[in-house]
Specification:
The complex is a heterodimer. By secondary structure, chain A is mostly beta strands. Chain A folds into 3 domains: about 90 residues, Immunoglobulin-like; about 120 residues, Immunoglobulin-like; about 110 residues, Immunoglobulin-like (Sandwich). In chain A, about 10% of the residues lie in helices and about 35% in strands. Chain A contains 5 helices and 24 strands. In chain A, the strands form 6 sheets. Chain A has a 4-stranded antiparallel sheet, with no helix packed on it. In chain A, a hairpin with a 2-residue loop joins strand 4 and strand 5. By secondary structure, chain B is mainly beta. Helix content of chain B is about 10%, strand content about 40%. In chain B, strands 10, 11, 12, 13, 14 and 18 form a 6-stranded mixed sheet that branches. Chain B has a 4-stranded antiparallel sheet with strand order 1-2-3-9, with no helix packed on it. A 4-stranded antiparallel sheet of chain B has the order 4-26-25-24. Chain B starts with a helix and ends with a strand. Classes of the chains: A mainly beta, B mainly beta. Chains A and B meet through strand 3, strand 4, strand 5, strand 12 and strand 13 of A and helix 1, helix 3, strand 13 and strand 14 of B. Strand 23 of chain A pairs antiparallel with strand 14 of chain B, so a sheet runs across the interface.
Amino acid sequence: MARSFFVAVILAVGMTAAAQPVSIQLDGNIFKVVGQPAGTLTVYAGTGDVPPLAGRTVIENGTLVFRPTYPLAPGVRYRAVFTPRSGAAIEKTFDSPSRRVTPAARVERVYPSADVLPSNQLRLYIYFSAAMSRGEAERRIHVLDADGKTLRGMFLPGQELWDPNNQRLTMTFDPGRIKRDLTSNRAMGPPIAEGRRYTLVIDREWRDANGAAMVDAFRKTFRGGPAVRQPPDPTTWKISAPAAGTRDPLVVSFGRSMNYTLLQRMLRVAGARGDVNGIIAVTREESEWRFTPQQPWAAGGHRLIVDNSLEDLAGNKIGQPFDIDVFDKVTERITTTSSAIPFEIR
Amino acid sequence: MDYRKIGVLALAVAVLIVYAVRRPATVTADGDLASVNGGLKSAGALAFGPDGVLFVGDSIGGAITAIDTGDRTPVASAAQVNIQRIDEKLAALVGVMPGDILINDVAVNPISKNVYVSAARGRGPDAAPLVVRVDGSGKLTLLPLDAVKHETVSLADAPDANPSGRQNPRTQTITDMAYVNGNLMIAGMSNEEWSSALRSIPYPFKTASKGTQLQIWHASHGRYETQSPVRTFVPYTIDGQQYVLAAYTCTPLVKIPVSDLKAGAQVKGVTISDLGSGNQPLDMVPYKKDGHEFILIANSSFGVVKLHADNLGQYKPIDSPTVVDVAGAPYDKITAVTNVRHLTQFDNSRALVLTSAGGGGFGPATGPFSLQTVALP
């Protein structure tokens, strides 16, 4: 005890008597060499045969500093090595704070919302409550059969189709199995078989953008229904026009479930004075579109304008089935980009 | 003591110190990420154009950036590439854990044979795009876009009405690109609608030109036609005519004459092979060996195959239901190369592969990853 105290005193006296000792410090995002500006400062963020951390070394106010190109990341051990012009190199390691691991994200919604999906269902849209990690969909999303067995080859492998916020993921059922007469379709059949029961499972272990697992796993059971081959036909849609002077919603019933994401932007309402502004709601398992105007309805003629790229659940567009049977003369391609359905507000 | 000599000596020492101090830095940027990234929001598909120009597909930004790499020194005979744990090296370079590096594509500069890797630093929406050059000695260098000449062309349509002010959720993911006869061709998939956009943009880019957008269709046995997104494609010459060989997302491999790719055209590819079921071609490398033509194809679940391509000119459109099936071009499975995630041409006798210990295809992106040249079989 007394001896170590004595050594400490000697060291302290020595340090105050000599020049300031050389040390490496981490100040926010910047590595600094205190007490000796001449030399090289190299920072490593990995072990083994790895390149040094990208960044810029400069002398600022007589201090040698290293500014990394990218912000320091959680959970990384940084090793800073200062090599003076003469003398031995010194090094120091710094551990950045570990990742936040409190679960916060969950699956909020999955579209289609119906419990029965056509056997030629084309896409799923998964909405998360928080930004998620890319590169995990392949191992975190499963479809189980009625016996709980994981089914392979359900989805198109490859690039994950996210929105820019990483909160909505688009999954595509393997189109090679959906499109009639292709090798995959003949060998494996469509991903969903009519009459069978399935469970969509999304693992809780899927990490959000901060690296934390989700709050809960997600499960949705559904049954395979008949394939939908006929393209949606706006002339068969039922339009319930509200009364003039009210802000009651215009209600459009499609008679089948439609693609939820496309219903957000492929239908609009025009009156005598141009487009009507309002709020869109999609209800009844995406078979109904409700439009509430910002201003009360004006009496007179209006039009519902439909982008002909609007799809139903099976990827059938207005006037154009997903896989057109060219020998079936009943279906003809529509070449216009939009359709207009007139209705009257009284 | 001669003070002039001391002055010169002091200056030399100062220069040496400054040089020594700056030496570890691999980029000249100063922490300003927006500046380092040059407006790039993501770095995905890569393709080389003329004179060392590297095209970088930015799916999140809805744009293509053409980078003048300045990398124009030819090599007569490039050494073998064998870089183990490339993901760990990239992670160390940009200061993250290896699991936070997502490698998106690799390309080889046909002039210098240097390898270029596109990746993301991070897996969330704020992930930084990376474009990194890997030279013959295995040295990694970040390409800071603020310090290199580059130009960008936007692919985005006019922004949707967006009253809530939130970011437009609609994106077009660029699945592949290739430079063909003065045009950059771009295949992509929408995260909303089922579309089959194949775009052709003249290069050098012209102001406000988004190029020509084509509808690509696929027929199965002449009967069922589908708009079909192209996942991967490669320029190819058959009997003196320029084609693209394209793999649809619905699996068949087709040939499309470039002369058919005109504005407003509805283009239908002619099937030359179908490596289904449940399989997707990832990348293709056409080559010649011993007087025969082949296409090396890396697949999502079939591994690597070598397609015999001597007779591709003979394949005709199937427009009759009486034709029962497509025999397809014959192919051999190449078992010597496994776990391939990306495949690209290196030179006339070698391909470059990115392999993953976690498996090939589109399986979980788990490392370590390796970059290697392999002899064309």
